Amino acid sequence: MELRSRIPSGPIERKWEKHRFEMKLVNPANKRRYTVIVVGTGLAGGAAAATLSELGYSVKAFCFQDSPRRAHSIAAQGGINAAKNYQNDGDSVYRLFYDTVKCGDFRAREGNVYRLAELSVRIIDHCVAQGVPFAREYGGLLANRSFGGAQVSRTFYARGQTGQQLLLGCYQALEKEVMKGGVRMFPRTEMLDVIVANGKARGIVVRDMVTGQIESHIADAVILATGGYGNVFYLSTNAKGSNATAIWRAYRRGAAFANPCFTQIHPTCIPVSGDYQSKLTLMSESLRNDGRVWVPKRSGDDRLPQGIPEPERDYYLERKYPSFGNLSPRDIASRAAKEVCDEGRGVGPGGRGVYLDFSDAIKRLGRDRVEERYGNLFEMYERITDENPYETPMRIYPAVHYTMGGLWVDYNLMSTIPGLHVIGEANFSDHGANRLGASALMQGLADGYFVVPLTIGDYLAAYKPEPIGNDHPDVRATIAAVRERTTRLMSVRGKRSSTAFHRELGKVMWEYCGMARSTEGLRAALHIIPELRAEFWRDLRVPGTGEELNQELERAGRVADFLELAELMCIDALHREESCGGHFRVEHQTPDGEALRHDDAFAYVAAWEFAGDGKDPILNKEPLVFENVALATRSYK
Amino acid sequence: MKLTLHVWRQPDSRANGAFATYTATDISPDMSFLEMLDVVNERLVAAGERPIAFDHDCREGICGSCGMMINGVAHGPARATATCQLHMRRFADGAVIWIEPWRARAFPVVRDLVVDRGALDRIVASGGFISVNTGSAPEANSLPVPKQNADDAMDAAACIGCGACVAACPNGSASLFTAAKVAHLGLLPHGQPERLRRAVRMVAQMDAEGFGHCTLFGECQEACPKEISIDTIARLNRDFLRATVARPAERTVGGTG
């Protein structure tokens, strides 16, 4: 497999401009003749569908939720970065670029990251014009807050509901285009395969989730904006429906999967409370602006937090990382929490938790100011835990939150299948081995509003339309494969629900492919996962039929794909003999326990190619070249 | 905890539904309401029965997917709380709980507790947006917005589109949903050019979808998990009235180019 990244030559600040000029254009009158399918209606997909329709393309958009407004982007709390430098604190496009490359532990492409930083300012302009009610100062201008991994204040926010407000902006733009007739929207419709005909992505096969009908949709290009695969861990901050089926099916049809082991564990989530737990709830990282993280100095200290005097508390982030303190990047803060809990100093039931304490902030700012900044988060915390964070410190623990890995794409965001574009969290391109806080919203919107609507034109301008119908052999074969698989899921008729298998898989992944990974553990996981998968296909139970709304069937299909993807994640984690960002191999650490990269051997993107069931995937390498940022050891001390 | 559940079961939109009774045992007070239903469902699957279908996704109270009538109250007994954020500690051990889908003419039942809320999307499509195409926006800070307006707009924009307001309304009206959007966009300078047209079109679509009229019962704001105020409905009415009295006819003629 050839990996052509197509990064334009020339100085980094001119690459995107040069590329925009060099790309071929589609005549405005011809655009409506092209149909583009967009799967997923979160920030990336919603933005792409709306913008492509504004440009004149015929768009078909799909989501599994009952409305495009419910995609999981909606749950992002903290904010969106942009290099506006409104605070006059030394920010610039170059600094956002630099922070992102450094935070990603030098495993992202410079060219993509620079473009992202460059587009960040236009995103804010556009969202404000759409009516996104960002927080403002008394003078009427936009407010900013700080976020982990940065020393400038560049994060724009709408209370603790930034994702919701940005997504509603996107959704409203999408509905505006639905009304104009440029977008046809298919809610409650799940993509189950991609149609590759004559070597090009030409459509998708979907299941109507209400009637169970399986049908094909043909197009000239396909965009996957289906989000990340964090739910492979069962418990994560992802929505219950978030799944990897679309990207996994594309992988099986020839799209390379890049850096699958790069997952982000978010440091501030509400700890697990019991076996019935169905998901984990994130507490925005912005809380670390004013909350101080600590545990008791002595292990086994079970006094109430208020009863532990100041000298007996260990503010370990402030101690270990004095210059970034409580705002250390996510991977570092998460690992530090795990470390203190492993030492027996964790708090709360089971000892898997650390305190996030606002008492100093309340003293300094007053309760009203704290409430204004974080009121809705405090309420959510209290609702879930029945504890009042104004009076007793929050308990937090890391949880799976985001996946930096995803389908491999070139600078045009096209995968290794011609015509199949992948945007947002579903691709791998911009965050390297660890994502900077408040950058996921930025990337989704940059890809959707500003990148893919242009680059898809370059693909379509050079593409010779070959009309194909539902009777084309590749279309028929794909539909048959989907039908066969659905029938197979329904006909196991075993005893265990897909949720039971999913929960078990999640435990294996959290244990062996979570915050700390070892050769031994990963080998164990690679032994357990195939057995669990075999067990799944022997003992799965899906009640009902395939020709009705059947949520058990939907879940079973997604879990079946997670059971395959999990194995690839472990293979990738085992092969990457270094620690970088969210990927921490215990064998590769500095004497003081920090991640130890091996740039000589691993400064590449690992793009895995499907070789067939039961065969080892093929590793392809895209070397990473750093022309602007010198490779250095990340330090937040 | 041990609970008795009476749950509305209905195979599809055409079939008749009925209540089925289940006993839920070993329920922890720390479970969310949906986690309690998960436990019931896993036991139904183990017994070879069809589980109870219900919409849910983020389980953080923000996506708006979930929603059911719990003992006749939209989203149940906790104030300003979506069903997924309702915890079982709100119920007494031994409680009897009646669980139904949203009941409204404009929300047909799809299955069990799942309803079709597509009408809300169509109300937004009719005018709940600002017409700005990607790439055409001016510098974000070129237009200052008084903080009070931005905060009020945010209060209205917090709507999660769950439909509880419709389900709680004796008239089955979507006025609070529609008004929240009209207020959000109408409070911002960017939303002024389309303000009156937006109100007229959204109200017309709401009528066309079969939602009832607002008679200011105020049940909607009591049920709203985001505490959206019926003050927004006053704004909607004002915009609507101004539009019908003062709005010039829309000109459809193009330029001379």
How would you characterize this protein structure?
- The complex is a heterodimer of chains A (637) and B (257).
- Chain A is of the alpha+beta class.
- Chain A has three domains: 309 residues, FAD/NAD(P)-binding domain (3-Layer(bba) Sandwich), CATH 3.50.50; 137 residues, Succinate dehydrogenase/fumarate reductase flavoprotein, catalytic domain (Flavocytochrome C3, Chain A, domain 1, Alpha-Beta Complex), CATH 3.90.700.10; 125 residues, Fumarate reductase/succinate dehydrogenase flavoprotein-like, C-terminal domain (Methane Monooxygenase Hydroxylase, Chain G, domain 1), CATH 1.20.58.
- Chain A has 17 helices and 19 strands.
- In chain A, the strands form five sheets. Chain A has a five-stranded parallel sheet with strand order 5-2-1-9-17. In chain A, strands 11-15-14-12-13 form a five-stranded antiparallel sheet.
- In chain A, helix 3 packs parallel to helix 6 and helix 3 packs parallel to helix 12.
- The mean pLDDT of chain A is 96.
- Chain B is an alpha+beta fold and 257 residues long.
- The radius of gyration of chain B is 21 Å and the shape is elongated.
- Helices cover 33% and strands 11% of the residues of chain B.
- Chain B starts with a strand and ends in an 11-residue tail after the last helix.
- Chain B has two domains: 109 residues, Beta-grasp domain (Ubiquitin-like (UB roll)); 130 residues, Alpha-helical ferredoxin (Fumarate Reductase Iron-sulfur Protein, Chain B, domain 2, Orthogonal Bundle), CATH 1.10.1060.
- In chain B, helix 2 runs antiparallel to helix 6.
- The longest helix of chain B has 16 residues.
- Chain B contains eight helices and seven strands.
- In chain B, the strands form two sheets. Chain B has a five-stranded mixed sheet.
- The interface between A and B is large, with 80 and 78 residues.
